[in-house]
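Whiteboard transcription, Tuesday session. T.W. wrote the structure tokens on the left side:
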């Protein structure tokens, strides 16, 4: 049996991380980057979220792949390198192996240890497939290592499911998708297969990000424990309440942590007072229309574009090719 290679390009600069987090917490409108939601526990909590009845994106996207994977496979060259962005447990990409028949699987994720364990398990299921794990924070752009295949010789299919593109603002999404277009390779058949959550009713959207069981709340509040470890802050979980709401003007779900009482958060060399009801903005998830996202892909340099949806058009999977 082959063993997965593992390349760790994400090396935490603890001083830079601390400065980034404390700068966000000290801002007049306190905020953090959503990437800090995904420590080891946060990654596992997100996997649990995908099983919740309120969280429609995962099962709706899975139904689209089940119904249309044969049509999608017509765009994917046999033997292409499949690059899974934000791979997590690798389960979504693995469900397509038999249909797409990749020659190499490259799993990319910021949560390094979670990815390492997932890839080790997956290699046992597919012992003959070349597998590469890349520990990488690609939020500011995507540069793949040589182990991810030769972009001049091999077709690359980049896979970005789960509507994670929604974490980027429209301007940020355009910049990111341009870096993805560059990473696809020059070979015919290279392209991007991406899941996109579509605009829908407020009640359905807000329930998906504030479930009755409280798993999303735990996922959001776990961020504070992660910040405590990274910055030596003294966040106390009972002081904070999870808020998930749909901002109709910006067409985005917002997640916040709201102070349940006046509280002072301290760290070495500083502190921040929060009033009752004051919030820390922790994540955005933008929702798109079909035409709007197709136009975004066009501006990113993808010439060939098509999509598949569920019957109710709650979610879409787009194929974006360079030719």
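and on the right, the sequence the group agreed on:
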């Amino acid at each position: 049996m082959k063993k997965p290679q593992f390349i760790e390009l994400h090396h935490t600069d603890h001083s830079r991380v601390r400065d980034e987090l404390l700068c966000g917490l000290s801002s007049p409108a306190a905020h953090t980057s959503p990437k800090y939601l995904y420590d080891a526990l946060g990654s596992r909590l997100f996997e649990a979220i995908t099983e919740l009845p309120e969280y429609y994106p995962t099962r709706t996207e899975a139904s689209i792949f089940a119904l249309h994977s044969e049509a999608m496979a017509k765009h994917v060259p046999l033997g292409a390198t499949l690059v899974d962005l934000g791979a997590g447990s690798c389960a979504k990409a693995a469900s397509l192996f038999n249909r797409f028949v990749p020659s190499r699987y490259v799993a990319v994720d910021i949560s390094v240890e979670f990815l390492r364990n997932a890839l080790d398990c997956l290699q046992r299921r597919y012992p003959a497939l070349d597998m590469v794990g890349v520990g990488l924070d690609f939020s500011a752009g995507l540069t793949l290592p040589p182990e991810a295949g030769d972009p001049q010789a091999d077709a690359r299919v980049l896979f970005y499911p789960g509507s994670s593109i929604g974490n980027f603002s429209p301007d940020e999404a355009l910049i990111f998708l341009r870096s993805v277009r560059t990473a696809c390779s020059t070979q015919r058949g290279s392209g991007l297969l991406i899941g996109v959550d579509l605009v829908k009713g407020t009640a359905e959207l807000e329930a998906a990000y504030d479930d009755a069981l409280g798993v999303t709340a735990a996922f959001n509040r776990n961020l504070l424990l992660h910040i405590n470890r990274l910055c030596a802050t003294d966040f106390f979980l009972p002081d904070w309440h999870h808020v998930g709401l749909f901002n109709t003007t910006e067409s985005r779900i917002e997640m916040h942590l709201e102070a349940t009482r006046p509280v002072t958060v301290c760290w070495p060399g500083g502190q921040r007072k929060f009033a009752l009801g004051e919030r820390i903005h922790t994540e955005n998830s933008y929702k798109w229309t079909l035409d709007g996202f197709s136009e975004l892909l066009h501006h990113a340099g993808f010439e060939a574009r098509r999509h598949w949806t569920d019957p109710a058009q709650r979610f879409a999977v787009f194929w974006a090719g360079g030719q």
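Someone added at the bottom: The radius of gyration is 20 Å.
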